[in-house]
Amino acid sequence: MSSSEFKLERNVELSPETKAIAEQELRETPERVREALERLRELLKENKDIYFGDDDELLTIFLRPCKWYPESALALMRRIAEFKRDNASLLNGLVPEHEKEAFLEHKVVNVMKGRDQKGRRLLIVNVGGSWNPKKVNADQLFRLFYLIHLAAMLEPESQVRGTVVLMDFYNMGWSQTMGLTPSFSKRLLTFIQDAMPLRLKEVHFVKQPRIFDVVWRMFKPFIRDKLRNRIFFHGSDMSSLHKHLSPSHLPADYEGQLPAIDYSGAEWYPVIQHVMPHIDNWNTYGFVKKP
């Protein structure tokens, strides 16, 4: 597995199939795109307390999940600014280098090198026995997730088709259970539901042991109906998972037809580094600092 196999599909034109999805699900037409981009630029000039870049690529990141409604995109920007402000101790100036060891040496988060049968990116989070919370704590786990989303948001196909998260709890014990703190649960769910400019289509929990109930009780109070309806529990029943994610696009780890995963965050860490200009810019966005 070479890092060259990981490619960020940035600045590519949507496939004809994805264009059809964008028009049907996101109201995306050339005329509406032009009008929305123009209006959102006007709104940003009027709202002087927040700062975001105004190039087409960046504004599209906010407009697509909001179905090209400029006012909704501005509201999303405000929620992102609020989240960045409220979590400044974790996110201020965050760059991949800060979590290089977690990426390279600990197989906690992984991105499938292909897409699923619906063309969606699949993020795998290993929070079972392979996760050592003493080496990568919950704050770091969130920072890894955050950095990955900064790269994923740049892919036009992912903006339209959305993303899927697979949470793998294989061999989860008390150390992992205690590592997933209530503050982590609340922060992660606030981020996903309020401040993530990506379409999260599904979340799958697999191989969860009985002790998982302790974790679920922490997460459950923060989950709103929209997300709740997209969460699926499979345990060790991979045929249940296959009703949502086709075996033809899954690795052998989940009884799929692809080879078992033999790569980790270490292989695609260079991809995230490659978008450093975008990450540096992102770190400047949010509420305007008062003099």
Task: Describe, in plain words, how this protein is organized in 3D.
The chain has helices at 16-26, 30-46, 56-63, 70-86, 88-91, 100-105, 138-152, 156-161, 174-179, 182-194, 212-219, 225-228, 238-241, 265-274, 276-282; strands spanning 50-51, 109-111, 121-126, 163-168, 200-206, 231-235, 286-287. The strands form 2 sheets. A 5-stranded mixed beta sheet has the order 2-3-4-5-6. It is α/β, with parallel strands linked by helices and 291 residues long. It is globular.
How do you describe this structure in short?
This is Clavesin-1. By secondary structure, the chain is of the alpha/beta class.
Kindly list the characteristics that best describe this protein.
single chain, 291 residues, alpha/beta, two-stranded antiparallel sheet, 7 strands, 47% helix, Clavesin-1, CRAL/TRIO_N_dom_sf, CRAL-TRIO_dom_sf, phosphatidylinositol bisphosphate binding
* Topology, number of strands: 7
What's the Cα radius of gyration? Answer: 19 Å
Gross geometry: globular
Overall mean pLDDT: 95
Supply the helix-strand structural class.
Answer: alpha/beta
Q: Name the assembly state.
A: single chain
Low-confidence stretches: none
Q: Widest sheet: strand order?
A: 2-3-4-5-6
Give the amount of beta strand, in percent. 5-15%
Largest sheet: 5 strands, mixed
Total DSSP helices: 15
- Give the helices and strands as they follow along the chain: HHEHHHHEEHHEHHEHHEHHHE
What distance lies between the first and last C-alpha atoms, to the nearest angstrom? 49 Å
